[in-house]
Write a structure and sequence with these properties.
TIM Barrel; UROD/MetE-like_sf; alpha/beta; 12% strand; methyltransferase; Met_Synth_C/arc; globular; metal-binding
């Protein structure tokens, strides 16, 4: 029985790629140094899978930034502003597209489906001159082959690539990007021809958009694309891989009718309903790549349950046509449990990171052929039983409190307009008030202090002194810049979700459970294994200390329940909304304690609310109902004079704007600059927004420093569709990933732009 892995984490077990990338970007190492680190990581990944016994090992899933940007490079679809003159795309052009440079901004970045992974959005139009400009897929296949490992090269499918793209600047917004299919297929043919010549026997095309709500025109594009490509892959087996959800019936019929395709890959964890279609409509003689091992969570597979599912599928497709697989790329999981020696032994027995999932896939494949590893299956069954019966998982009081929430919608009594009036009397802010989103740069010294405190190399007293000194510096800087509503900079936090999870019951933490978010940015998601509650206040001490350092309003900074949920590895033994309600109650306790401590502005970030939106429209309403309700629970008990902010970043918000309004926050700060001010279009189309709103005026994920004039121009565009008295001026997101030499001039220009516009507005009266 064959085994297959859809994709694998790239950063390395100790984030080797992250550090190599940042060293290269900072000019401390060469391109050759970066390429060597990458080559070493690739070879270790391929060898690991080969040694375990995986038959279908992926290549070209490694990336220096993301796989969609790699495809943009492959197709030579470089926007003109980067002054690319042709030939093989090198690091300079590639990273300029991803990160921007001193003279031009980066391309838009958004979330990859409903994950916390990001991709760079292609900018396309009728005048794009496509050309075969990156041979990465072929080079990596050859690289693996030189090691004696035959791999399955993975390409982002042509239709998914186009459906994820947007019209370039100056191109009509309703331009049908799918019409470019004929222009990109010749390049795909060249790639296929080179892979075939190099000896590839299988090629995997990732087409995850097949799980979304597609119209007949989009489905026809799949048929057109693969009918055309079929002429170039004679002698090569083609796998079309889907993931993240069920494949709708119409898409399933289209997919399984594509000519010349040898196999189809399905997510049977998040797409369990697809099993019904497989049982009734799967075509004879085709390979089924059955994704029964979860590629997006860290819980050990229930091997006996998966084996039963696989045996039922074997009866349908035949023993020689069934391939055991992961549900998606393992990119979304941590790398290896071996790197977690300090993790609680019982909890560790319940988990499987990427390396362990590879072993699970192979164990299931062997189990199907009668080579079942009895000891491995027995240990797995014991762990499953332990998790179900462990007293640390369930807390009756928490469950009762969460159940009681269902009788109310938890709205603040007074409407937002009246609340804003009451808050303005207390805060006395100017028009176009300035603020930042929360974090300030995390310096080497700051990271050292946190690391040493965690390792008990410095005392708590020394730690508190150091953090207070950092807060004081951040407060002083903001006062010098004349920012209106301050933040304390979050120096005590390495990660916004991890920080809160460490102080909540029901969470476990890893030492090296890093997951790539974008580029070199990695996060270490907490593991929610049990019922959640807040034993003690979490931020009151630091927020109170920060407020005592200034007479200006100081935000209390919290992460919202939906974001904590979506940015964690969540327990899979109860509905997600039940866990979210538990977290909401814990955050509610913290909000009310902050208010009692005299904090009058409290920001509850919901950066990931849009990210968790299901991929199918029929499931949107239910998700948005409990997600928005969870946010309202956190702040329903505060006074009218307490101003509640929230923040959202890097997603398409226009389709959920009414749910955002329904959150009933007093002020929302929201990503806007990197997405070409897409957010503003919803207000141009007539949506009325009465609360405070701060669409981001510059992109913090790029080192580029915007001028005062550029920021003022952005704010003027906002003033064309938003009332002056509700508009805030702020960056797109937190500043922790930037350096102070970038942050200071950018914020200085931001404040100067706000003051310039205040003067202009005053003189216009």
């Amino acid at each position: 029985m064959a085994s297959h892995i859809v994709g694998y984490p790239r950063m390395g077990p100790k984030r080797e790629l992250k550090f190599a990338l940042e060293s290269f970007w900072d000019g401390k190492s060469s391109a050759e140094d970066l390429e060597k680190v990458a080559a070493d990581l690739r070879s270790s990944i391929w060898k690991q899978m080969s040694d375990v016994g995986i038959k279908y090992i992926p290549s070209n899933t490694f990336s220096y930034y993301d796989q969609v940007l790699d495809t943009t490079a492959m197709l030579g679809a470089v926007p003109p502003r980067y002054n690319w003159t042709g030939g093989e795309i090198g690091f300079s052009t590639y990273f300029s597209m991803a990160r921007g440079n001193a003279s031009v901004p980066a391309m838009e970045m958004t979330k990859w489906f409903d994950t916390n992974y990001h991709f760079i959005v292609p900018e396309l139009g009728p005048d794009v001159k496509f050309s075969y400009a990156s041979h990465k897929a072929v080079n990596e296949y050859k690289e693996a082959k030189a090691l004696g490992i035959d791999t399955v090269p993975v390409l982002v499918g042509p239709v998914t690539y186009l459906l994820l793209s947007k019209p370039a600047k100056g191109v009509e917004k309703n331009f049908p990007i799918i019409s470019l299919l004929d222009k990109i297929l010749p390049i795909y043919k060249e790639v296929i021809a080179e892979l075939k010549a190099a000896g590839a026997t299988w090629i995997q095309f990732d087409e995850p958009t097949l799980v979304k709500d597609l119209d007949s025109h989009d489905l026809e594009a799949f048929m057109k694309a693969y009918s055309e490509l079929k002429t170039s892959w004679s002698g090569v087996n083609v796998l079309i891989q889907t993931y993240f959800a069920d494949v709708p019936e119409a898409a399933f019929k289209t997919l399984t009718s594509l000519p010349g395709v040898a196999g189809y890959g399905f997510d049977l964890v998040r797409g369990a309903k697809t099993l019904n279609l497989i049982r009734t409509e799967f075509p004879l003689g085709m390979h089924l790549f059955a994704g029964v091992v979860d590629g997006r969570n860290i819980w050990a597979n229930d091997l006996e349950a998966s084996l039963k599912t696989l045996q039922s599928l074997e009866a349908i497709v035949g023993k020689d046509k069934l391939v055991v697989s992961t549900s998606s790329s393992l990119l979304h999981t941590a790398v290896d449990l071996v790197n977690e020696p300090k993790l609680d032994k019982e909890i560790k027995s319940w988990l499987a990171f990427a390396a362990q999932k590879v072993v699970e896939v192979n164990a299931l494949a062997k189990g199907l052929t009668g080579e079942k590893d009895a000891e491995f299956f027995s240990a797995n069954a014991a762990a499953q039983a332990s998790r179900k019966s462990s007293p640390r998982v369930n807390n009756e009081a928490v469950q009762k409190a969460a159940s009681a929430l269902k009788g109310s919608d938890h709205r603040r009594v007074t409407n937002v307009s009246a609340r804003l009036d009451a808050q303005q009397k207390k805060l006395n802010l100017p028009i176009l008030p300035t603020t930042t989103i929360g974090s300030f740069p995390q310096t080497v010294e700051l990271r050292r202090v946190r690391r040493e405190y965690k390792a008990k190399k410095i005392t708590e007293e020394e730690y508190v002194k150091s953090i207070k000194e950092e807060i004081s510096k951040v407060v002083k800087l903001q006062e010098e810049l004349d920012i209106d509503v301050l933040v304390h900079g979050e120096p005590e936090r390495n990660d916004m979700v991890e920080y809160f999870g460490e102080q909540l019951s029901g969470f476990a933490f890893t030492a090296n459970g890093w997951v790539q978010s974008y580029g070199s940015r990695c996060v270490k998601p907490p593991i929610i294994y049990g019922d959640v509650s807040r034993p003690n206040p979490m931020t009151v001490f630091w927020s109170s200390a920060a407020q005592s350092m200034t007479k200006r309003p100081m935000k209390g900074m919290l992460t919202g329940p939906v974001t904590i949920l979506n940015w964690s590895f969540v327990r899979n033994d109860q509905p997600r909304f039940e866990t979210c309600y538990q977290i909401a109650l814990a955050i509610k306790d913290e909000v009310e304690d902050l208010e009692k401590a005299g904090v009058t502005v409290i920001q509850i970030d919901e950066a990931a609310l849009r990210e968790g939106l299901p991929l199918r429209k029929s499931e949107h309403a239910f998700y948005l109902d409990w997600a928005v309700h969870s946010f309202r629970i956190t702040n329903c008990g505060v006074e009218d004079t307490t101003q509640i902010h929230t923040h959202m970043c890097y997603s398409n918000f226009n389709d959920i704007i009414h749910s955002i309004i329904d959150m009933d926050a007093d002020v929302i700060t929201i990503e806007n600059s990197r997405s070409d001010e897409k957010l503003l279009s919803v207000f141009r189309e007539g949506v009325k927004y009465g609360a405070g709103i701060g669409p981001g005026v510059y992109d913090i994920h790029s080192p580029r420093i915007p001028s005062t004039e550029e920021i003022a121009d952005r704010v003027n565009k906002m003033l064309a569709v938003l009332e002056t008295n509700i508009l805030w001026v702020n960056p797109d997101c937190g500043l922790k990933t930037r350096k102070y030499h970038e942050v200071k001039p950018a914020l200085e220009n931001m404040v100067s732009a706000a003051k310039l516009l205040r003067t202009q507005l005053a003189s216009a009266k």
